[in-house]
């Protein structure tokens, strides 16, 4: 993938990611997050992970964020009015985030492999999906089933939570 | 009183809905087919064919002002139609008939009489309320114009549509 | 030339943004979104590593992609539960502001 | 590389401007004609012969109307929404193979290995246009339309995705061209037994495939907001729903987006169940047998074959579009709770069970 | 107190109450044409017939008691008119017995015999007693087959009143009004029987200043106002309670408007001010609201010419110009036609600018003993009470001299024409700042540096104190044309622009501030004034109106037109 495409999608993702945090209006935040996820999906594709990229769009942009939007609209959340910002908390939060960033920069800077380009891939005879699927249903069979149970439990939990209390 | 319509009890076949859906699709495709092959002929092709000849007597088209046999505008600007008009389409500016006029006895006439045909709903209230039998709903139904101003019928236009009305009560002409 | 380091740094920045969002914002729904940002930052570095570690067969290391797949699944479940809790909270309190939801029971 | 880019661009431009967009506007015309015929009317018959120039007149009318932005809307999103509504339907077309080959160029814009997932992913973005339109209009009916749309989309995407899994269990690849190839070799999925009448396995396979088709087609109806599932725009109760506050070309974009989605949906159904661009022709060349033409034949036969395949594909799409219209003018709209019940308690389960049936057939009975 | 039985229920009424009034108070309305409570009762329409009875007296001259323990009543055989009879002890009245109903139907039938059926062109239609009672008490058809009597139509009785004799039902209210209230005996009946007509005495015209009250009290459409005739049907009129601002009397009025045009003003009953009447002068004084000369948008002097500006610019310009002077260089000429709220805000403006010379222009005219006051300023007492002036007009010569000598370089006139003070156009031209707030343009407006168009009396809310010291309320009947602005808002904005401080946001706020500062107004608010007003000063507190210096040396360059057209 050409370098400029990487930077375009990376910047898209970061700028809209920041917009999620900055925007006052929940709907604008949610839409920024969608765009950010689309950028992320493009980055996944640039790493030859087509299946993950598409799943990213399908699950996040297509389902999770629609759910977010649905909830925002259902609760009719309006733009927050400007509140008094607690400077101490904000400064603390930003400081921690910056420290985290510095740490990452430092670690990546001292990580030898990080300076190397990606090795070339062999031309695959089978689909991405098939390879992942084989692993998923082979090596990771048990975790996969556990995840299935987890999703089931989550579904039941959501149904119970969102049921109105009988009066 | 609220009436609860009982829901029909459906058997399992009916509850599948599929036969009903297929039956419905069959009906519509039959209509489609008949129309396609020109076997159905229901609608009237409006600009070419018109139903002017078969308009019923009670048809309510455009409202219009009428004159009586003496050529007097029957309206005396009492403004009752302006009052009764549900969409407030009528606007009247009354005037006084000069004493030299042969109808000076009537004293009052409409100086301006506008009906906004964009607003008019052809309800016929004006005709019903008129104490002078001066306004009638005629059979004109295709009222068109290029601007909103065109769609306002002024007095002249209304009188042109209305023409002369014969055989109505002539209460201002009573003999001495 | 794009290196592994670039991806890792981008992923790190995204994580920091998400972290800042969780710390700074008080709207529960935005906090949930920021959490998603952080999870996805992790996904990005995982996929980058997966692409970097090419197996002898010439294919990327799919183990990490499977891991990402799991993360996405769990995150979706987490969002569903989180939003359900949010709706329940909103019904009780008519607010999504964490400052207003400070008591242990309703 | 340059050759690839040029042919891709040609395909994009050709398919978009020569086929899809005219098809969209003419499907609007067709809709009006079909509905008129079903209701014993004539439909548009004034502009040009049999009203064939009606779409052009419509376009001019829509372009010349006042583009009105109400005062209370959220302007940015209000303008963004129509664009978002039109876009997904069009970019989904990219992965659908609409012909075999022409001059050696495969007639698909992007033959990617996660084809059907791409379709679902992009189709699921279609809801944003509607939700945003409803929200940005700052008006109650559009808002209700938007909210309805978001939950409807989520509910029916599940059945949509689950319904096609049996097909990919069979094909073993998510690539849409592979699906078409498989059908050319093994018979169309809607009726795999055709041409192989004596094979009981094919007959058995037809059961899950038929269920797949029904569930998938119905889910596509819901995804494209067509009656009987057009809850988001329900004219009678929501006054047009999410597009109530729109006028002029912005309204037209919603309108065209809906028809583009319908075309895309038909194209995918054709690809998945009706053999794509495949149509065998009867031949008497030394006794009766089926011949199959495609773009791989040498010389002018290849060109004719390629063009014939493209024509076949779009004819099938047109027939399916007629199906869409036929259903629309026959069935009444569902109530909202009925829609949800149908999606979650009926189609979702059917699709799940269908996967088990198909998997069982494949695992235990496959010859 | 007398015990009176009305329709079977016993009530108590003070001595001297008319039976017709007693019935009304008891809730049984008796129809009437000739009877008017402010006039004498001739009893000639016969519409108010009732059945009446007196206590049945026993042999001992004591009332016999009925089975219910109340006095039994000896009903009279024939009906009586209720308007000419006072209540008496033990009296019984029946207002809806079969006999009374039959009488009412008969009287209605007689009244309608010669009455033309021209309701569609009659201006009284909609408020016509004949229409109302013929629905309530009459029969639905006419049995009259003969020809109706023809009488003169369209008779010009006077400059403002037109008579249609055919519609007259000979109730004589107008005759009695002229004799008893207007003290100008001009009307009378001539001829006999069916041919009786109302007319003016030979050689006389109905032209006194109260002639239009006859139109108000005429129960049918016989007397019509020439001004209002054929202009508008009464059922379209939106009625707003307000007061007349043409003199210090402050008659209570009802303003009839339709679509922001005033069609008529009629008196509203208020026994403390104007009884049921008002003068023609005030009644017809509303035409100037639609005048050609109406100022429609704020203007500022730009170079040599006045150019239209928006309000912000005009106010900012005025404030900028005024702030460059010290207070002693500015003079404010306020008006006695301003409401209390506006005068109060004018005082605030004067305080902000430190202006000592602020004065009201007196305005007088011939008055009469009935309603019209010599003082033609409606709110002179308000100006006195608020302390805008102690002796109206006293400072005017000083201001005029100041302008003439050049000592005053900034002049603010509020609804007044400085030329009335003898200041000439040349002198006005020398002023470096001349802010005019007015309704109509006049000769002086041309020399203004800032023109601020304001509201007329029917366009604004506010309060005024009349010559008797009664605080009354103006209400808004129409919207002002163009960009004209409410006076109090202009003054508030001007004060704000000069001082930089926010003050009030509604006229109620202004009144509240005023009520806090002025002891006489304590505890009052605009809504507490009510429709009938509140007495805040004693009548003897208002001295005779001051001499109008200006009236002699300038012709009436005024907005108000003289009575009569």
Features:
heteropentamer; B: 176 residues; alpha+beta; Alpha-Beta Plaits; 3-stranded antiparallel beta sheet; two-stranded antiparallel sheet; 5 helices; 5 strands; 24% helix; 14% strand; D: 367 residues; mainly alpha; two-stranded antiparallel ribbon; 12 helices; 66% helix; 3% strand
Structural description of this entry:
The complex is a heteropentamer of chains A (167), B (176), C (106), D (367) and E (565). Chain A is mostly helical and 167 residues long. Chain A has helices at residues 3-22, 26-46, 50-74, 87-109, 128-137, 141-162. In chain A, helix 1 (3-22) runs antiparallel to helix 2. In chain A, 36% of the residues are buried. Chain D has 367 residues and is mainly alpha-helical. Chain D has one domain (56-365). Chain D has helices at residues 2-38, 54-64, 75-92, 115-136, 140-163, 165-171, 176-186, 200-223, 235-238, 248-273, 299-328, 336-365, and strands at residues 101-102, 105-106, 281-283, 289-291. A two-stranded antiparallel ribbon of chain D has the order 1-2. A two-stranded antiparallel sheet of chain D has the order 3-4. The termini of chain D are far apart. The model of chain D has no long low-confidence stretch (mean pLDDT 83). Chain E has 3 domains: 2-106, Roll (Ubiquitin-like (UB roll)); 119-289, 2-Layer Sandwich (Alpha-Beta Plaits); 294-553, Rossmann fold, CATH 3.40.50.740. The radius of gyration of chain E is 29 Å and the shape is elongated. Chains A and C meet through helix 1, helix 2, helix 3, helix 4 and helix 5 of A and helix 1, helix 2 and helix 3 of C.
SSE layout and pairings?
The complex is a heteropentamer of chains A (167), B (176), C (106), D (367) and E (565).
Chain A: H1 3-22, H2 26-46, H3 50-74, H4 87-109, H5 128-137, H6 141-162
Helix pairs in contact in A: 1-2, 2-3
Chain B: H1 12-16, H2 18-36, E1 63-65, H3 80-84, E2 90-96, E3 108-116, H4 125-129, E4 135-137, E5 152-153, H5 155-162
Antiparallel strand pairs in B: 1-4, 2-3, 3-5
Chain D: H1 2-38, H2 54-64, H3 75-92, E1 101-102, E2 105-106, H4 115-136, H5 140-163, H6 165-171, H7 176-186, H8 200-223, H9 235-238, H10 248-273, E3 281-283, E4 289-291, H11 299-328, H12 336-365
Antiparallel strand pairs in D: 1-2, 3-4
């Amino acid at each position: 993938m050409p370098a400029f495409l990487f930077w375009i999608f990376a910047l898209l993702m970061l700028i809209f990611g920041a917009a999620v945090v900055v925007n006052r209006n929940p709907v604008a935040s949610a839409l920024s997050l969608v765009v950010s996820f689309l950028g992320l999906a493009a980055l996944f594709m640039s790493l030859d992970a087509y299946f993950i990229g598409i799943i990213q769009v399908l699950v996040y942009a297509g389902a999770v964020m629609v759910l977010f939007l649905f909830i925002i609209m259902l609760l009719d959340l309006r733009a927050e009015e400007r509140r008094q910002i607690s400077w101490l908390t904000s400064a603390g939060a930003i400081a921690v985030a910056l420290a985290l960033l510095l740490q990452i920069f430092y670690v990546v800077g001292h990580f030898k492999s990080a300076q190397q380009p990606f090795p070339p891939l062999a031309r695959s005879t089978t689909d991405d999906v098939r390879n992942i699927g084989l692993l998923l249903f082979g090596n990771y069979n048990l975790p996969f089933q556990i995840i299935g149970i987890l999703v089931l439990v989550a579904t039941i939990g959501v149904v119970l939570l969102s049921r109105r209390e009988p009066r | 009183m609220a009436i609860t319509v009982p829901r029909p009890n459906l058997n399992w076949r009916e509850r599948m809905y599929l036969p009903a859906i297929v039956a419905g699709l069959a009906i519509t495709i039959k209509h489609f087919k008949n129309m396609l092959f020109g076997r159905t002929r229901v609608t009237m092709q409006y600009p070419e064919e018109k139903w002017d000849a078969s308009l019923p007597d009670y048809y309510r088209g455009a409202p219009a002002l009428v004159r009586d046999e003496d050529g007097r505008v029957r309206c005396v600007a009492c403004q009752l139609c302006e009052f009764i008009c549900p969409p407030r389409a009528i606007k009247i500016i009354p005037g006084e008939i000069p004493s030299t006029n042969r109808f000076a006895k009537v004293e009052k006439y409409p100086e301006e009489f506008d009906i906004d045909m964009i607003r008019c709903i052809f309800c016929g209230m004006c005709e019903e309320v008129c104490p002078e039998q001066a306004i009638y709903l005629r059979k004109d139904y295709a009222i068109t114009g290029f601007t909103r101003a065109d769609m306002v019928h002024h007095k002249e236009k209304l009188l042109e549509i209305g023409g002369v009305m014969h055989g109505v009560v002539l209460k201002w002409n009573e003999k001495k | 030339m794009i290196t592994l380091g670039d991806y890792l740094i981008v992923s790190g920045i995204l994580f920091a943004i998400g972290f800042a969002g969780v710390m700074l914002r008080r709207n529960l729904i935005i906090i949930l979104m920021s959490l998603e940002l952080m999870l996805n930052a992790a996904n990005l570095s995982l996929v980058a590593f997966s692409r970097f570690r090419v197996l002898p067969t010439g294919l990327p290391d799919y183990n990490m992609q499977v891991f990402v797949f799991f993360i996405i699944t769990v995150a979706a479940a987490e969002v569903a539960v989180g939003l359900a809790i949010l709706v329940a909270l909103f019904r009780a309190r008519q607010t999504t502001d964490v400052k207003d939801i400070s008591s242990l029971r309703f | 590389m340059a050759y690839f880019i040029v042919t891709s661009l040609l395909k994009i431009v050709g398919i978009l401007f020569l086929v899809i967009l005219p098809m969209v506007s003419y499907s609007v015309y067709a809709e009006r004609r079909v509905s008129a015929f079903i209701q014993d009317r004539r439909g548009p018959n004034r502009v040009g012969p049999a009203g064939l120039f009606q779409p052009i007149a419509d376009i001019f009318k829509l372009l010349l109307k006042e583009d009105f932005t109400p005062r209370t809307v959220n302007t940015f999103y209000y303008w963004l929404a129509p664009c978002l509504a039109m876009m997904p339907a069009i970019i989904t077309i990219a992965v659908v193979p609409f012909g075999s080959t022409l001059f050696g160029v495969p007639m698909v814009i992007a033959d990617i290995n996660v084809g059907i997932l791409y379709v679902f992913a992009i189709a699921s973005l279609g809801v944003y246009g509607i939700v945003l339109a409803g929200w940005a209009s700052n008006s109650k009916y559009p808002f209700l339309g938007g909210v309805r749309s978001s939950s409807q989309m989520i509910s029916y995407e599940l059945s949509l995705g689950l319904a096609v899994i049996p097909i990919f269990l069979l094909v073993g690849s998510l690539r849409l061209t592979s699906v078409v190839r498989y059908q050319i070799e093994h018979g169309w999925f809607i009726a795999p037994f055709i041409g192989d009448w004596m094979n009981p396995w094919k007959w058995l396979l037809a059961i899950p495939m038929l269920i797949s088709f029904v569930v998938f087609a119905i889910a596509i109806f819901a995804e494209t907001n067509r009656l009987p599932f057009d809850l988001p725009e329900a004219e009678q109760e929501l006054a047009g729903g999410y597009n109530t506050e729109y006028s002029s070309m912005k309204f037209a974009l919603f309108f065209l987006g809906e028809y583009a989605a319908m075309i895309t949906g038909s194209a995918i159904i054709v690809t998945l169940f009706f053999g794509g661009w495949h149509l065998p022709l009867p031949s008497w060349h030394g006794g009766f047998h089926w011949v199959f033409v495609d773009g791989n034949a040498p010389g002018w036969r290849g060109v004719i074959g390629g063009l014939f395949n493209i024509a076949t594909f779009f004819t099938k799409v047109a027939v399916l579009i007629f199906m869409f219209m036929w259903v629309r003018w026959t069935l009444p709209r569902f109530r909202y709770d009925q829609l949800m019940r149908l999606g979650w308690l009926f189609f979702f389960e059917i699709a799940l069970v269908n996967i088990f049936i198909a998997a069982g057939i494949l695992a235990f009975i496959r010859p | 107190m007398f015990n009176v039985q009305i329709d079977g229920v016993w009530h108590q009424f003070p001595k001297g109450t008319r039976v017709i009034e007693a019935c009304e108070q008891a809730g049984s309305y008796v129809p009437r044409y000739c009877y008017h409570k402010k006039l004498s009762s001739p009893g000639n329409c016969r519409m108010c017939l009732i059945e009446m009875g007196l206590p049945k007296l026993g042999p001992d001259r004591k009332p016999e008691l009925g089975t219910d323990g109340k006095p039994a009543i000896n009903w009279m055989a024939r009906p009586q008119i209720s308007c000419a009879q006072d209540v008496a002890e033990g009296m019984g009245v029946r207002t809806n017995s079969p006999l009374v109903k039959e009488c009412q139907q008969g009287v209605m039938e007689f009244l309608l015999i010669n009455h033309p059926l021209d309701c569609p062109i009659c201006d009284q239609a909609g408020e016509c007693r004949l229409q109302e009672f013929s629905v309530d008490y009459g029969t639905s058809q006419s049995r009259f087959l003969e020809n109706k009597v023809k009488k003169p139509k369209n008779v010009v009785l006077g400059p403002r009143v037109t008579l249609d004799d055919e519609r007259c039902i000979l109730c004589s209210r107008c005759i009695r009004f002229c004799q008893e209230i207007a003290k100008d005996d001009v009307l009378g009946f001539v001829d006999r029987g069916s041919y009786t007509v109302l007319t003016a005495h030979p050689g006389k015209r109905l032209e006194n200043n109260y002639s239009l009250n006859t139109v108000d009290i005429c129960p049918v459409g016989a007397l019509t106002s020439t001004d209002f005739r054929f202009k508008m049907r009464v059922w379209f009129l939106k009625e707003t309670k307000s007061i007349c601002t043409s003199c210090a009397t402050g008659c209570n009025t009802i303003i009839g408007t339709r679509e922001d045009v005033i069609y008529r003003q009629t008196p509203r009953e208020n026994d403390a001010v104007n009884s049921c009447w008002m003068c023609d002068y005030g009644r017809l004084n509303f035409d100037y609201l639609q005048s050609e000369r109406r100022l429609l948008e704020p203007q500022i002097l730009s170079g040599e010419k006045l150019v239209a500006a928006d309000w912000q610019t005009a106010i900012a310009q005025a404030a900028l110009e005024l702030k460059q002077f010290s207070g002693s260089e500015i003079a404010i000429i306020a008006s006695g036609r301003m409401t209390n709220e506006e005068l109060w805000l004018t005082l605030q403006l004067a305080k902000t600018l430190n202006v000592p010379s602020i004065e009201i222009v007196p305005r007088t005219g011939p008055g009469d003993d009935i309603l019209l006051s010599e003082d033609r300023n409606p709110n002179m007492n308000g100006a006195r009470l608020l302390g805008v002036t102690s002796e109206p007009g006293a400072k005017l010569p000083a201001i005029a001299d100041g302008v003439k000598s050049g000592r005053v370089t900034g002049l603010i006139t509020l609804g007044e024409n400085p030329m009335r003070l003898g200041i000439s156009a040349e002198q006005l031209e020398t002023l470096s700042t001349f802010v005019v707030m007015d309704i109509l343009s006049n000769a002086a407006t041309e020399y203004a540096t800032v023109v601020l168009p304001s509201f007329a009396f029917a366009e604004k809310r506010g309060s005024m104190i009349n010559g008797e010291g009664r605080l009354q309320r103006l209400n808004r009947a129409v919207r002002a044309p163009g960009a004209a602005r409410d006076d109090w808002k202009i003054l508030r904005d001007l004060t704000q622009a000069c001082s930089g401080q926010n003050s009030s946001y509604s006229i109620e706020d202004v009144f509240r501030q005023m009520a806090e500062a002025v002891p006489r107004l304590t505890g009052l608010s605009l809504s507490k004034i009510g429709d009938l007003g509140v007495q805040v000063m004693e009548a003897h507190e208002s001295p005779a109106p001051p001499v109008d210096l200006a009236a002699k040396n300038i012709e009436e360059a005024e907005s108000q037109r003289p009575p009569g057209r």
